[in-house]
Amino acid sequence: MDILSLFIIVPVLTILALVFTKGLQQARITAMVGSLIQLGMASNLVIAYFKERAVNDSIMLFTKDMIWFDHFNIHYAIGVDGISVALLGLTAIIVLAGVFISWKMEDLPKEFFISLLVLSTGVYGFFISIDLFTMFVFYEIAVIPMYLLIGIWGSGPKEYSAMKLTLMLMGGSAVLLVGVLGIYFNSNADGGALTFNILEIAKVHIPFAAQKLFFPLTFLGFAVLGALFPFHTWSPDGHASAPTAVSMLHAGVLMKLGGYGIFRIAMFLLPLGAMEWSWFFIILAAIGVVYGAFGAVRQTDLKYINAYASVSHLGLVLFALLTFNKIAWNGAILQSLSHGLLTALFFALIGMIYGRTHTRDINKLGGLMKTLPFIGAVYVITGLAYLGLPGFSGFIAEMNIFVGAFENPDMFHRVLTILAVSSIVVTAVYILRLVGKIMMGPIIDEHHHDLPKVTWYEKTGILLLLIPIIGMGVAPIWLSDMIMASLQPFIQGVLTH
């Protein structure tokens, strides 16, 4: 069995095992064991990748190609580079952390964990696919369970939030499908056969008129999931109603499919179209960065604050990609990883606070550092990492983005870069206000004097996320070098046009 297909097979086997479990304890142990195996596989893949990369300079490693639908030349084609490997590792970490944070889930636990694992299966499949059609199928597999996860296990106006999220993402998928088919029907522009294979299409000179038409469709299809302004409105509502683990996977992993798809498909396969449209979409991305930060300042619900912060930080990923600078691109991938870990950790902490105080309103919270010192300390650390303090993952990611973006000599890009940099100040405002108000302030509710202590499984989930955040900040070179080496083929393919 090849090393990559296991990322599909193991979650599916875990789902089948969950079907036959009885009771809460069996369900969560089965989900935990399956997720632990996935994390072990991701760790093994990193080691195997470095060994193989030392002797193999192919764009994609561990490739496998099996015919799926011969008539349309659709293949089960898989392979990874350093970017894919890093995102697979991120997914494995957040899935396992989500299982631990959901340890007390008592409402249909078997069905809940099955839905989580279906989502993760789609994400894994998306990151390893190098066939456009197969990638699109896994994309839909990842998105569809969100409706059930929010609609069944959510809170507040969960039906509205689940329906809004589903309709907007399905609308994005419809636009994306048109873009994918447009690429497919122009993949024989040099006289070859029609193909969905990304590596083969990249060698074809797709006509400029086709690129100009299908790039915005492909970009928007993915950008809806990446929370591009003004198509971001599904995200705050979805986060606010979703259960904790779903918010963690949603913001930490699922939304990364948008930026990854833009980079791997829209920009790599349609570089001329990307350059033609970049000025328009980079304005929207820059607006999203600032708007998300100011939106977070205006909120009083902890989940809404983190959701708008996610819109801002994911806007930086799209902004960096559209600068066409290799340092900024490196920063975009690092930001995807950093944001995934940080936002998942924030949602985990918010879920733990809500589970004990039964409120997410910052005006009703205070003095949590006294009553919940572990949660308080980690919350402060996470907040400092989120606003880009050196020594944490956020700093190395944002520095690459801003330095790379400012290397563009024209006034247009530099003004937008300065605008994006200003979001750091706004981020500091809402992070420090939160820390001061809910952690350091006086205890507002007398019932908050004696709150339940943090459990071992909650601490395990938190540390699974916190350790990589610090690791990325302290020793980023190996990860940055792995990503930069994988960017080289894309730099040659896109920047040389």
In brief:
The protein contains 21 helices and 2 strands. The protein is about 75% helix and about 5% strand.
- What gross morphology would you assign? globular
Structural class label: mainly alpha
Mean pLDDT across every amino acid position: 84
Binned, the helix content reads over 70%
Give the radius of gyration: 22 Å
Count the E strands: 2
Give the end-to-end Cα distance, rounded to a whole number of Å. 39 Å
Strand content: under 5%
Q: DSSP helix count?
A: 21
Protein name: NADH-quinone oxidoreductase subunit M
Family: Belongs to the complex I subunit 4 family.
Transmembrane segments: 6-24, 31-50, 74-100, 112-130, 136-153, 165-185, 213-232, 253-271, 277-297, 304-324, 336-354, 374-396, 416-435, 456-479
Domain NADH:quinone oxidoreductase/Mrp antiporter transmembrane: 130-416
What does this structure look like?
There is one protein chain. The chain has helices at residues 6-19, 23-53, 82-101, 109-128, 132-143, 145-153, 158-185, 198-201, 208-225, 234-241, 244-254, 256-269, 271-298, 302-321, 326-357, 368-371, 373-386, 393-406, 411-440, 456-474, 477-495, and strands at residues 61-69, 74-80. By secondary structure, the protein is mainly alpha-helical. It has a two-stranded antiparallel ribbon with strand order 1-2. The two termini are 39 Å apart. The mean pLDDT is 84. One of its GO terms (molecular function) is NADH dehydrogenase activity. Its main location: membrane.
Q: Mind sketching the topology for me?
A:
Layout: H1 6-19, H2 23-53, E1 61-69, E2 74-80, H3 82-101, H4 109-128, H5 132-143, H6 145-153, H7 158-185, H8 198-201, H9 208-225, H10 234-241, H11 244-254, H12 256-269, H13 271-298, H14 302-321, H15 326-357, H16 368-371, H17 373-386, H18 393-406, H19 411-440, H20 456-474, H21 477-495
Antiparallel strand pairs: 1-2
